[in-house]
Amino acid sequence: MTATGARRWLLAGTAAIASIGSAQAQTVNPNANGTLAGTTITNTATASYTVNGTAGTATSNTATFLVDRKVNLTVVPVQNTVQVNLGQTGAYTSFQVTNATNDYQDFLLSANQTILTGILTGTDTYDLADLKIYVDSNGNGTYDAGVDTAEFIDELAPDGRATVFVVGNIPASPIGTMAQVGLQVRTAAGGGTGTPGAVLVASAVNLDNQTDVVFADDDNDGLLGYDALRNGAGWAYGSYDIGVHAVNLTVAKSASVVSDGVSALNPKALPGAIVQYCLTVTNGTLTTPASGINLTDVIPANTTYVPGSITIGGLGTNGVCLVGGFPQNDDGTQATGPYRGSYDAGTKTVTATIPTLLGGTSLAASFRVKIN
Questions:
Q1: Do residues 119 and 169 make contact, with C-beta atoms less than 8 angstroms apart?
Q2: Which residues pair with 242 in a beta bridge?
Q3: How many domains does the chain have?
Q4: Which of 119, 137, 182, 207 is deepest in the core (most CB within 10 A)?
Q5: Is pLDDT at 18 greater than 50 in this prediction?
Q6: Is residue 33 part of a domain?
Q7: Residue 180 class from Cβ within 10 Å (0-12 exposed, 13-18 middle, 19+ buried)?
Q8: What per-residue confidence (pLDDT) applies to 21?
Q9: HEC string of 13-37?
Q10: What's the domain range around 332?
Q11: Average pLDDT for residues 162-174, to the nearest whole number?
């Protein structure tokens, strides 16, 4: 018996099998999918006879063969569609892999974001960035960044199950509503804890003195999918749907006289007075950021824009600026901070650009005019 065979016989007598990279420590029946591959089966025949009243026996040679590996697996999505938000990082969808082989197996994992039309309901309109695949290490069914780090299923027992997460980042800008992804799971040789085994290859001939590999898996996704009959692999598919396509964005505006050249304590809206306009933009959708916000305001009649007076990113409430923001250049070039402002003298328009406004937050933009 080989060292690997001896290890498997030892494991077969153990009730709790710890499978690194699988869902968790499992209580399994190693014969759940039939006699364990590599098991030696022997048989000897005897014959009895008499000669002149004397009894005798004859024993045949021992016929020996090894139980072959019947490779099978299932791959199914835990949920067909997960709801995600624009700009969400670490979004994941879950799959369950079951080892239906009569042996301990590794499973290699890969993903594809090019999904053929018709496999899933909906239209694939965007791709996730930084796509990764991880195995649930603690069996809680939830992706835990930094905890779930295994990238293959290691030594999964017969009839054992593991949860696999396909993880990625959702674009910040709305370029579509749904991303679809496929997970491929390939059966690989077990035998070395912590190291992925080589992809199994079906045996070309049947030999009694070795453990042959026989693929017994079905084509689990039909003509539209990537899987094939008896290939030792399986596919399953899931999608990420941007459930919120709009946010509750509001803008409040106020005007306050800053100075009038007459009274420092109580300035009035006199000719020559300086007036500050404040615009407070609020994203009332708590879980979804708004991107590419452009605030525009045309200078009213009987006023003149005060050059260099645009500030963006301050604190404001109900249209009243409480704390000033970053000063901006009138020509639209970057000044300070992550924002950008400009003034178009031809159209008398002030523009304030805010790249991203997180859900449940507000920002203020302000500028000044002189009363003619």
A1: no
A2: 84
A3: 2
A4: 182
A5: no
A6: no
A7: buried
A8: 40
A9: CCCEECCCCCCCCEECCCCCCCCCC
A10: 249-371
A11: 91
Q: Considering only residues 191 and 263, tell me which one the structure prediction assigns the higher pLDDT.
A: 263
Q: State what percent of residues in the chain have pLDDT above 70.
A: 90
Tracing tokens 């003298």 back to the chain, one arrives at 345
Residue 11 has pLDDT above 70, yes or no: no
Give a yes or no: residue 48 inside a domain: no
Last residue of a domain, one of 191, 224, 242: 242
355 pLDDT higher than 70? yes
Residue 89 forms part of a structural domain: yes
Region of poorest pLDDT, from 12-16, 98-102, 120-124, 350-354:
12-16
Whether 222 and 86 map to the same domain: the answer is yes
| Partners of 84 in beta bridges | 242
Question: Cβ(312)–Cβ(337) under 8 Å?
Answer: yes
Do 331 and 357 belong together in one domain?
Answer: yes
81: domain CATH number is 2.60.40.10
Indicate whether 191 and 256 sit together in one domain.
Answer: no
The more confidently predicted of residues 55 and 286 is 55
pLDDT, tens digit, 9 for 90 and up, residues 70-96: 999 999 999 899 989 888 999 999 999
User: 268 and 190 in one domain?
Assistant: no
Residues 216 and 74 occupy one common structural domain: yes
Residues, the chain, total?
372
Rounded to the nearest angstrom, the gap between the alpha carbon of residue 104 and the centroid of all alpha carbons in its chain is: 27
Sign of torsion, CA 121 123 125 127?
positive
Co-location of 237 and 294 in the same domain: no
Residue 334 is assigned to a structural domain of this protein: yes
Distance of CA 206 to the CA centre of its chain: 42
User: What average pLDDT does range 36-40 have in this prediction?
Assistant: 87
Distance CA 370, CA 362 (A): 27
Return d(Cα 21, Cα 193) in angstroms, integer.
10
